[in-house]
Each structure stands twice: as C-alpha cells, then as structure tokens.
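Students often ask why we bother encoding 3D structure as a string. The short answer is that it lets us treat folding as translation between two languages. Here is a chain of 493 residues written in the first language.
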Amino acid sequence: MAEMKNLARQTAVYGISNILGKFLNWLLVPLYTYVLTSSAEYGVVTNLYAWTALLLVILTYGMETGFFRFANKEDGDAQKVFGTVLTSVAVTSTIFAMLVMLFSEDVAVWLGYSSHPEYVTMMGIIVAIDAVGTIPFAYLRYENKAGKFAIFKLLMIIVNIAANLFFLVLCPMLKSKYDVEIPFYDENYGVGYIFVSNLISTIFVTLLLLPEIRKAKSPDAGLLKKILGYSLPLLLLGIAGIMNQTIDKIIFPYLMPDRAVAESELGIYGACFKVAMVMMVFTQAFRYAYEPFVFAQSKGEDKKVQYSLAMKYYVIFALLIALGMSLFMDVFALLVSPSYRVGMTIVPLVLLTYLFQGVYFNLSIWYKLTDRTYWGAILSTIGLVITLVVNIALVPEFSYYGSAIASFLCYLCVTIISYIMSQKYFPIDYDNKSMAIYLVLALGLYGIFYFLAPEGLAVRLLLSTVLLSVYIIVLFRRDFPASSLPVVGKYFR
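And here it is in the second language, the structure alphabet:
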C-alpha cells in the first residue's frame, strides 16, 4: 500500500502542475481570439501546433520510455543511459533544425504560409529544443523529483504567457495610447509573436535544465543500439497515437461539403474538447507518475498486484471525474461562450474517450515489460485506421459528432484488443468485477439524469448533486472506508 500512496502523491504533484499549466494555457485562447485580427490567423497557430505535436513524437522516437526501461534494469547505469539517450536525441534534433532552417521557404510554400517562412523556422527550432528537453525532464521523473519537474513546467508556461501578454497586449497599448516607439516591435506581425513567445519560453526552460543535463555521462554506442532496438517500435506507436488525437482536426475541413461551415463546426468541436480538459489532465498526470512506477516495480515480487490496484483506482477516480463533469455540464459550459455550447453534448463521450485512453495506457505495460513494443505500434496503427475510417464515414453526415464517435471507438477497440493480448503474454488479475460495477453505476446515474432532464437550473444542479453523492457513497463503502481517510479517519474507527 505504501507504493500506492507514493504513486498517489506523485500523481497529485504532476496533476496540480498539469491543472495549473493547462488552465493557464487555456486562458491564452480567449486572448488570441481577442487580439488577432481574424480567425484565419488563429488557424495558422492551430495548424502549425498540430504539426509540432507530430514532429515532437518523431524527434523523440520512443527514447523517453527507452530511458526508463534501461535506467531501471538491475545492471543499469542511469547516468550512462541518460547521457546516451540525450546525445542521440540532441544530434537528430540538431540535424532536423538545420534542415528546417535550410528549406524553410520551400516548407512554408508547401504548408501555405509562403509569406512567412520564419514561422516554419521558429517552429522547427522550438520542436527541436523541446525534443531534447524531454530527456532531462524524464530524468527528473526517474529521480522522483516531481516538485522540480512541476516547477520547471509551470515556469515555462508562465514565461510563455508573460511574453504573449507583452507582445500582444502591452506593446500595442504602449504604441496606441502613449505613442511609445518600441524598436523591435511590429504591430502588423500579430500571430508571429505567438511563436516568438514560445521560442523564448523554450530557451528559458532549457537553461533551467542545464544542471540536470550536466549529470549525463558519455554516450555508449553499444548501449545506444540496444535502446534503439527497444525504442524505435515505439516511434510508430507514438506517431499513430498522436495522429489518433489530431487527425480528426486535420482532415475535418476536407470532409465537409462547405468549407466555411466546416471551419465553424471545427471551432465548436475544438472548444468543447477543451471542456473535457480535467479528464485529460488527470490521465496525463497519472501517466507521468505511472511509467517510472511501472519499471521500478518490475523488480518486486508483488508487482502484478500493484499494477492491478493502480488500474482499479485509476478507473474509479476517472469515472468520478467523468460523472461529475457530465452531471454538472451547466457549470462547465461557462468555460466557452454561448455560441459554442451547442456542441456540449459531445463532452460525456469525449470524457469516456479519455478514460479508455488512460486504461489503454495502463494496459501497455504488458508489451513494455516483455519487450514486445512492436505490439504498441500494431495497436496504434489499428486505432489510427479506425479513426480515419469512422471520420470519413460519419463526419460528412454528422459533423463533429462523427469525430467524437470515431475517437471513442478507436480507444475502446484498442483497449479491448490490448487487454486480450495482455492476458496471453503478461497475465494480470485485474479486478474487472469492481471496475465493471463502477462503470455501470456511473452510466446508470448519468442515464437517470439524462432521461429525467429537469428544466430548471436549480433542479438540475440539485439532482446532479444527489446522483454524484450516490457514486461517492458507494465508493467509500466499497473501497475507501471512512476509517482509512487521513486525519479524520481515526474518528470512524
């Protein structure tokens, strides 16, 4: 149980930093929509950052997970592994950045931004530096320095926000209201300052990571070959995985008959995905803590018991979040403007998608610990095919509802397949009965709310409170008796 408490503590630390970070980044969205001259400019940001997400996966080529795997081997030298992985990623990222700078104009024409090749140059440098930075951040996680990890991530976000406010708010105000001339500021550059701000924050956090980078030992060619053999199959997994998350937003405009309508619908879809941010944050926080936990526990005798407990508690609390957000949708709808709220009906399905995404990640230990990482690539490719086919089939008729269904079916199917394969190669006695009870309970409680559909806001909130309380009561009676609670538990013994 001590291992579970440590996992819970680190999940909380990563979660708090993720919550703050995601919330602060979310605040940039209304800022951008207010200060940029057109939605087309924000479209440039959306498009280039979608490419950045894909390129970051390619440039890290599974080496982050490879680091954890080899650093935790019984005969492993963590600093030697760190130095080997860091050098490899640094070399490939430098080559990538140089190629982008050399061919920036050609790439800009291909992407449709021929008048701003510097956008491509900046994003190429940013993604290269970010790729290198993932390795020292992984080293912090390996050393269980969750606090330092969280602080560095938050400082990066704060610097990015400060730079955005400086270029997009303060500089225009000084120029328009006080006629202050700022030599390095161009009032017509607009969206370019978003990339400038990102570049500044990326360089800033890299400087913070220098003390960690200095801990790396000289690279080992033989070790690198072994790590690459383990990690490269994860590259396909990563590409397919990130494409599963972004491909719908990339192809959506091309699947609708009217481009203008498609862009409007895509905006609603993207905004409503933001509402499900809480579940995404919880899943990501759990992932940050879970991966080093898995490899560290791989040496323990009761490792499979710990993995089973981790899965059970993830599902319980993920369902609590999903149910709570679905029941109190009236409150969470305030995160987006009224014109976007028509799409809020997809949020419960998006929440379930994130839940299964987390379960799928937890199940991935079977191929990571048995060195069958190629299965990760196979499963992700299956998921990508499902996402593409369902989007193409449903989006022309059902718009963003088709995209939401596609994402859900993708993670549901790969989760089922991964579970079946895990029981063959790395059988774990998961508490399927308890997880099924909580899933049925959560769906049943939401079903009651959905079919009753009371009219008044006060009545809806009251009913939501009662239904959520039922889930929480069952949770405490079955798996978290009051006597086990910290501080107040002694009063129930």
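Translate back mentally: Residues 253 and 264 are 10 Å apart (CA to CA). Keep this in mind for the problem set.
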